[in-house]
Amino acid sequence: MTSRTDVHVAEPVFSFDKECDSYEVFCRKVEERVVEGLRNYRIKTIRPDTGVYIKPSRTARQRDCVALTAENFVPLIASAYTNYQKRTKDSGPFEIEMFVLAARKERRVLPGTRHATASWVQEAATTTDNYLEERPDLQVGEIFRTHGSISRYCCRTPIHCNICAGAAYRRRVS
């Protein structure tokens, strides 16, 4: 699923001399603005694709955008400038709309992991206490009880389980 969101970029318009400045200078100027905009964005993002994209025409759709490279930079800028000069009404200075892609930073969550809520921690503590009451030969301290309440391990074979995992396993079976 794809969604499109505009990220506020401080000073999105910058000057660029298409005759003197190179592709690297252009990309550096874009990158400076994008990095700062993404840093201030409320959702943490990553940029798996660090390319800069340009619309081949003014009415082109997003899927038609072309990635700028050192090889196609000069021809694409020249084409955009030619199209700008063909306009019949004055639309202000020559501007090019650029795009960069970003994705939400995914949180790595292990399978079976749940967010700790008060009821879940209480349930885990009760399960651990019940297990330990059934095993009077085991002596544990407060640290074990706290650790066992907060991090219950999933174990499919009870032979290899530690005490904490055994309590969680026993609860799932019954």
Automatic annotation (TrEMBL):
It comes from the Eukaryota. This is Uncharacterized protein. It comes from Phytophthora cactorum.
